[in-house]
RNA sequence: GGCCUCGUGGCGCAACUGAAUAGCGCACUGGAUUUCGGCUCCAGCGGUUGCAGGUUUGAAUCCUGCCGGGGUCACCA
């Protein structure tokens, strides 16, 4: 049971005894006492005044007095305005800590909740390599999935691969025109980078054609529609839809190059998926759904044959679901995909879409249409909407070549980690392979932490220089603390697995115990809010407490055996919590660095 | 233009979803090691939470208006 619950129960007893009122413990507002005041837990008494019919101060005094003299766990209290600050006995904290130590999983829920969640993330287009924005997306989706698992839920990690459409036709066409049969092997380029190269080549040619047409007196709008290479790409898309054998096998070949490239990047990022969906499969399912919806009168058809959903009740604009020529749009396949997933995993408790906030409107419409179609589980669908990653010079723009490539970025943070760690690290006697592994752990840990420590909902600034920083609120700072603890434990293991409740502890030791005890509720909070940043900030605070403790109190040279054992045990416990929470963020921690 | 969203020390971020004197990191200044890993710790500097009203015992947080940034309003994904 967490501390504030224990306190609420005690307060309920007090109120019942003093004011003769039975109040549910949930009603009481219990908070951690602010650092500037004496106490551990604070009862905010304002909401109680209608029961006590006394001034805030008087009410707080009465309750505080009762708790200290009648309760078992309080050592003292003080009242400031409407706040009752309560101090808990050291023995209480030690008992709580002992029961925490007995839990094998440190508060990570081991019992199945019976709920299944689908978490979608990544979902790239297949015409260009992954970039910085995808990194935030992938790290977030992966971490949220792990956090949900830690709360006892079953989780299916998935993505929809946008493998079809005009964008891939553009790359294909450019490759046919300018590629001379180039392959990843012949060019020594990763498959996704090779395809990206031809997507850029298409764009270049397209622009020059448009400029040409404008020069010949054609309006800009007209030129953008009539550029020959665009018309050719559209022809290619039609051929693809007809499954023209030549085009289809080219499409399969080029996509396979991209997948090889993506898989390498996913390995590098340390993310994985349980089930993949391909748009080239699901867009057909979506079409069926739309036709059925039309029959049932949920959708309507315009004169030109296009099919729409009326959303005026919801005060949204009508949404196109199928074009007049019968081809599908993004929404079509998303409907198909959602329904398919729900079937595949049978009554899922929630579907979470990790997609940038530029698509807020899209998901609002998607969930609304699903609901209109009679799928009540649409209420359980959730758009995990995250903010854009911006660079110091502004938003990334592919046109201006400011896109930060995912592979390049990871490589560069690993290189930076190598440089810094070679200078300052403790690597003597380590094999070259182990060193390389360590650089990857530090570099990627820094990058992941940097992208995850910010509230997902908010847009964030990516400053390349800061991302590999080692000081302050960073991944390597936390990793360093872990490594230090491990080096301590190598020198001496703890022989005890519990703490005697009559020890006298320093404040920095009590701070640590109190904070460790908040770990289970932090995991729950992170899941509730789908926010890894809550865990990141928790861990950072834990490390600060530990460093502060480590700085001022000696451990191995402590003469008192009991105290020494306690401090080793406490250090080991901090290490375990760091490792556990970092794992939920997808970050590894090294024994040495 | 309509709708959505965000504005917190020079910069980057917190604030347990309405509570006490708004925290932290970077940067800057000054300190700490006969000690277990100094990639450490302690202290200082720096704020009228964009502006103006309102609700409340209490507002960075809720409401209204204005100013500024971003997003979206596609038969693109």
Shape: globular
| Spatial extent as radius of gyration | 29 Å
Number of strands: 15
Task: Output mean pLDDT.
Answer: 92
CATH fold-level name of the domain at 3-88: Gyrase A, domain 2
Strand order of the largest sheet: 7-6-5-11-12
End-to-end Cα distance, whole Å, is 37 Å
Overall SS class: alpha/beta
Beta-strand share of residues: 5-15%
Low-confidence stretches: none
Largest sheet: 5 strands, parallel
Question: What labels would you give this structure?
Answer:
593 residues; alpha/beta; Gyrase A, domain 2; five-stranded parallel sheet; four-stranded antiparallel sheet; 22 helices; 15 strands; globular; RNA-binding
Summarize the structure.
This protein is α/β, with parallel strands linked by helices and 593 residues long. It contains 22 helices and 15 strands.
Provide an overview of this structure.
This protein is an alpha/beta fold and 593 residues long. It has a domain at 3-88: Arginyl tRNA synthetase N-terminal domain (Gyrase A, domain 2), CATH 3.30.1360.70. 55% of the residues lie in helices and 11% in strands. The chain has 22 helices and 15 strands. It has helices at 3-19, 49-52, 56-70, 90-102, 132-150, 166-178, 184-187, 191-215, 220-226, 228-241, 245-269, 279-295, 330-344, 360-372, 406-424, 432-452, 464-467, 475-491, 507-517, 519-529, 532-552, 561-584, and strands at residues 30-32, 41-44, 74-80, 83-88, 116-120, 154-161, 275-278, 299-301, 307-309, 319-322, 350-356, 381-386, 389-391, 394-395, 460-461. The strands form four sheets. A five-stranded parallel beta sheet has the order 7-6-5-11-12, sandwiched between helices. α6 (166-178) packs across α10, α20 runs antiparallel to α21 and α21 (532-552) runs antiparallel to α22 (561-584). The two termini are 37 Å apart. The chain binds one RNA strand of 77 nucleotides through α14, α15, β15, α18 and α20.
């Amino acid at each position: 049971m967490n501390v504030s619950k224990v306190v609420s129960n005690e307060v309920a007893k007090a109120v019942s005894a003093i004011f003769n009122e039975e109040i549910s413990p949930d009603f009481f507002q219990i908070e951690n006492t602010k650092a500037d005041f004496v106490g551990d837990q604070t009862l905010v008494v304002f909401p109680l005044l209608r029961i006590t019919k006394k001034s805030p101060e008087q009410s707080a005094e009465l309750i505080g007095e009762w708790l200290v003299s009648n309760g078992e766990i309080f050592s003292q209290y003080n009242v400031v305005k409407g706040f009752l600050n309560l101090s808990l006995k050291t023995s209480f904290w030690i008992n709580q800590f002992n029961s925490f130590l007995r839990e094998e999983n440190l508060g990570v829920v081991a019992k199945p909740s019976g709920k299944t969640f689908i978490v979608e993330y990544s979902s790239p287009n297949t015409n260009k390599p992954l970039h910085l924005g995808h990194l935030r997306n992938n790290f977030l989706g992966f971490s949220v999935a792990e956090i949900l698992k830690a709360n006892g839920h079953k989780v299916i990690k998935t993505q929809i691969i946008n493998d079809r459409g005009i964008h891939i036709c553009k790359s294909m066409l450019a490759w046919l025109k300018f590629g001379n049969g180039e392959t990843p092997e012949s060019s020594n380029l990763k498959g996704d980078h090779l395809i990206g190269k031809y997507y850029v080549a298409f764009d270049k040619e397209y622009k020059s054609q448009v400029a040409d047409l404008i020069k010949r007196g054609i309006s800009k709008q007209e030129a953008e529609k009539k550029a020959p290479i665009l018309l050719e790409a559209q022809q290619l898309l039609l051929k693809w839809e007809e499954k023209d054998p030549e085009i289809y096998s080219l499409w399969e070949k080029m996509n396979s190059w991209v997948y090889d490239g993506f898989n390498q990047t996913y390995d590098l990022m340390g993310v994985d998926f349980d089930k993949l969906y391909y748009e080239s499969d699901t867009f057909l399912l979506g079409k069926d759904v739309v036709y059925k919806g039309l029959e049932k009168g949920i959708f309507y058809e315009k004169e030109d044959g296009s099919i729409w959903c009326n959303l005026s009740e919801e005060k949204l604009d009508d949404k196109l679901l199928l074009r007049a020529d019968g081809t599908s749009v993004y929404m079509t396949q998303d409907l198909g995909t959602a329904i398919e997933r729900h079937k595949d995993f049978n009554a899922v408790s929630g579907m979470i879409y990790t997609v940038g906030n530029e698509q807020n409107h899209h998901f609002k419409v998607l969930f609304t249409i699903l609901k209109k179609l009679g799928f009540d589980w649409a209420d359980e669908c959730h758009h995990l909407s995250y903010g854009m990653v911006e660079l110091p010079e502004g938003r990334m723009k592919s046109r201006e070549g400011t896109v930060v490539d995912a592979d390049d970025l990871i490589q560069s943070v690993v290189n930076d980690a190598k440089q810094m760690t070679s200078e300052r690290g403790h690597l003597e006697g380590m094999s070259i392979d182990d060193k390389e592994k360590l650089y990857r752990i530090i570099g990627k840990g820094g990058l992941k932490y940097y992208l995850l420590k910010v509230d997902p909902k908010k847009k964030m600034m990516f400053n390349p220089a800061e991302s590999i920083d080692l000081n302050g609120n960073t991944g390597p700072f936390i990793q360093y603390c872990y490594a230090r603890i491990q080096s301590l434990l190598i020198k001496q293991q703890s022989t005890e697995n519990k703490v005697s409740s009559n020890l006298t502890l320093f404040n920095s030791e009590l701070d640590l115990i109190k904070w460790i005890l908040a770990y289970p509720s932090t995991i729950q909070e992170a899941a509730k809010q789908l926010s890894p940043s809550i865990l990141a900030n928790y861990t950072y605070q834990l490390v600060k407490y530990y460093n502060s403790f480590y700085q001022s109190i000696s451990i191995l040279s402590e003469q008192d055996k009991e105290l020494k054992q306690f401090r080793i045990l406490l250090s080991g416990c901090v290490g375990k919590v760091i490792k556990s929470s970092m794992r939920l963020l997808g970050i590894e921690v090294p024994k040495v660095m």
